[in-house]
Fold this protein.
Amino acid sequence: MGSSYNAEKQTRMKMIKVWIACLGSFLLSMAGGLILLLWEIKYHPSNSQLWMVPCGLIMFVTPALACFAAFLSDTLTQRASLDHPTTFIIQPTAFSQLSSPRHPSQHV
């Protein structure tokens, strides 16, 4: 009973962390969009405060790209693990036998 409670609590904590990361990404993207909007309304006619454009674009686009990359990575990793359910473990001695020089007396 205790182990299922701990597993449920860990799952819940993981979901909370994911939601916090999503909320932070969304807020960062919104801040970037607001910077771009502010620049468009207030500074675009005079072409001043141009630093706001790249800063706003970076803040606006980066969270979306990061979320897309994480989603794609997770999707492809799950597909690859389903295609190849077994994992082959390579023993370190196999490489040491290939790289060590063999003397003629050691050949079988």
Observations:
- The chain has three helices and no strands.
- The longest helix spans residues 2-43.
- The two ends are 58 Å apart (CA to CA).
- The chain has one domain: 2-81.
